[in-house]
Write a structure and sequence with these properties.
This protein has about 240 residues and is mainly α. It has a domain of about 90 residues. The chain is built from nine helices and no strands. Helix 1 crosses helix 7, helix 4 packs antiparallel against helix 5 and helix 7 packs across helix 9. It is globular and about 60 Å long.
Length: about 240
């Protein structure tokens, strides 16, 4: 389940660039919904292709299932094409994640809870260039720190933990800021957010018990940021 959720991770990254989006009240919900529907459609079609090419027994224990399915369907040339597609897709994913994540560092620096230099905007390209470079270096260091499975387990544990916090924050903000304008209201409130919080919390607890090392490592990475957050927060 960790690996499955990892494939959907970043569907919400468009919100990080909300300040650079025209008519965000209208376009962000559309982008989130449209992106999820497109992503789900692609994954369903791909899995249908796998089931058409391979039996369940043939899939068991196969880590590079796309390459194997392509070999069955169109031969070795198809497998090579799929492998190259995966490489290109990986580079594209890395670029998109860094471009989106850098906006988060930029926003934190603008709020005074991160390195002040990270809120600099390039005079020509109008991008947060310092945040982009800093996140690229940090990502490269993380890539050398463990296996791919360990890294996405760190990420997913922390990400779902933040999802729980975001769901709880929705209720808290409704209580503490009842008169604040809300151009977009949560569908099915309060039942949908409650189900979301419960499901996310169950995932966090299960990961903590099933993968304690990776879970605690993810918590450790989060804890590393707390002293910096307090330090810059006090200065701000």
């Amino acid at each position: 389940m960790i690996a499955v959720l990892w494939t959907y991770e970043a569907w919400y990254f468009v919100t990080y660039a909300a300040g650079e989006i025209k008519d965000p009240q209208r376009n962000i919900p559309r982008a989130l919904l449209g992106g999820l529907l497109i992503l789900m459609s692609i994954y369903v079609v791909v899995n249908i292709a796998y089931l058409y090419a391979l039996s369940i027994d043939e899939m068991k224990g196969t880590t590079r299932i796309a390459e194997r399915a392509a070999t069955v369907l169109v031969g070795p040339a198809g497998a090579t094409f799929v492998a190259l597609t995966v490489v290109i897709s990986t580079f594209g994913n890395n670029a998109a994640a860094i471009l989106a994540g850098s906006r988060l560092l930029f926003a934190m620096a603008s709020d005074g809870v991160f390195l002040p230099q990270a809120n600099r905007v390039h005079p020509l390209y109008r991008t947060p260039h310092v945040a982009i470079v800093a996140l690229t270096i940090w990502s490269a260091l993380l890539a050398l720190s463990g296996t791919y499975e360990q890294l996405f387990t760190y990420v997913m544990f922390a990400s779902i933990l933040f999802s729980v916090a975001a769901g709880v924050a929705l209720f808290r903000l409704r209580y503490t800021m009842p008169d604040r304008p809300r151009p977009y209201e949560t569908f099915g409130y309060p039942f949908v957010p409650l189900v979301f919080i419960a499901g996310s919390a169950a995932f966090v607890l299960n990961t903590l018990f099933e993968r304690p090392f990776e879970s605690l490592a993810g918590l450790g990475l989060l804890a590393l940021g707390l002293p910096a957050y307090w330090y810059w927060g006090k200065r701000a």
